[in-house]
Amino acid sequence: MKQDVILVLDCGATNVRAIAVDCQGKIVARASTPNASDIASENSTWHQWSLDAILQRFADCCHRLSSELSTRQIRGITVTTFGVDGALVDENGELLYPVISWKCPRTAAVMANISRLMTPQQLQDISGVGAFSFNTLYKLVWLKENHPQLLERAHAWLFISSLLNHRLTGEYTTDITMAGTSQLLDIHQREFSPDILQAAGIPRRLFPRLVEAGEHIGTLQSTTATLLGLPTGIPVISAGHDTQFALFGAGAQPDEPVLSSGTWEILMVRSAQVNTPLLSQYSGSTCELDSHAGLYNPGMQWLASGVLEWVRKLLWTADTPWQTLIDEANAIPAGADGVKMQCDLLTGANAGWQGVTLNSTRGHLYRAALEGLTHRLQQNLQTLETIGHFQATELLLVGGGSRNALWNQIKANVLGIPIKVLDDAETTVAGAAMFAWSGIGEFTSPEQARAQVHYQYRYFYPQTEPELTGVE
Hints:
It comes from Citrobacter freundii. One of its GO terms (biological process) is L-fucose catabolic process. It is an enzyme of class 2 (transferase). Pathway: Carbohydrate degradation; L-fucose degradation; L-lactaldehyde and glycerone phosphate from L-fucose: step 2/3. 35% of the residues lie in helices and 23% in strands. By secondary structure, the chain is an alpha+beta fold. The chain folds into 2 domains: 3-244, Nucleotidyltransferase, domain 5 (2-Layer Sandwich), CATH 3.30.420; 251-423 and 442-472, Nucleotidyltransferase, domain 5 (2-Layer Sandwich). The strands form 7 sheets. Strands 18-19-17-16-22-23-24 form a 7-stranded mixed beta sheet. Strands 3-2-1-6-15-14 form a 6-stranded mixed beta sheet, with helices on both faces. Helix 11 packs across helix 17 and helix 15 crosses helix 16 (405-415). The protein is globular and about 70 Å long.
């Protein structure tokens, strides 16, 4: 008897992956190949994605899995991707213009001048999404101003996950978790905002029906089935934006904040309420739609391990093992003997160390960086609690930064709550598979699918360190 699996097609900015997941959430087969944007022919500084190249990369991954998948029954397929990007298509689903990449600078000027259409505060009050130059709104305004005939000809705008789903099924849909990243939605109504669309001059007809995560889109059609080397007729289930499924796949419950710690730290929560007018008062804030109707994902982000990487390169070498830095900082008492660091190296006029003496070592400076970043986390968590109307009782930590045990302990001490560390890196894939299992009827809900997974967490509990108990 063949083992049942869900096939997750995950399109990341650096890798395209095909991953088979069983009903206990275990990965049973995977293949990956590098992904990269292309340089636009119009301007050598512009970036775009080739949809055909991405599909071919998925095909390469699926063919590499062919022997492993031949002994398994693929019960469903689901697609996850990064947010905001998409393209205008004609009535046959063919692209009218390439997919503008989130890292393309061409939309920065649109964002800078968006107040002529609607103020940034109004936009965030309605959509929840912060002012980021890669937002879908700015892409569509750029297309309207530079290629107006394409908007008139277009049958639809499809986000990148929906472009892939259309190639799989022939259906025109809009993954609601992708729409939630666009700055085009009324986040409280879970529908495209008439006010934003009218201000930008974008017709509502461009956006196909909204589908919720776990909703059946269609079945795998013969042309793409042949390309991927898969049987026709496999159900295709909606997923969409990777962040929402990473939260669910990590095991996060409503009102349990999750910190993804890497070069940037991204703090988000699954909350039943959100104060969107308050969001615009905080730089780096945003709010997206949760994978579950009725929940929101307010969040904040700031440079974190990027600061620590700079400190390592400055005071050690770029290749020095992190454990060397951790050991030296661990020998320094909490409070770093009065050395403090303001860690906003991107925009802070007063960034850097204070309280340095002739007795200060590089261990002091690194510990001060860890403590400074943790105080930034404390301030942002307090802000997020206000925005999302919740009170944190623990913090779920994922990402590369979670491997720093000293930093984890400092976080627990400063926040005064347990830090719960999940080492599994495949939270997006796991979360998407849970919704797909529910979508094909194997489980009654994504929560029931998640209940089949045995999560293993490491806990860091607050310890008494008086110097670290308050906000600076």
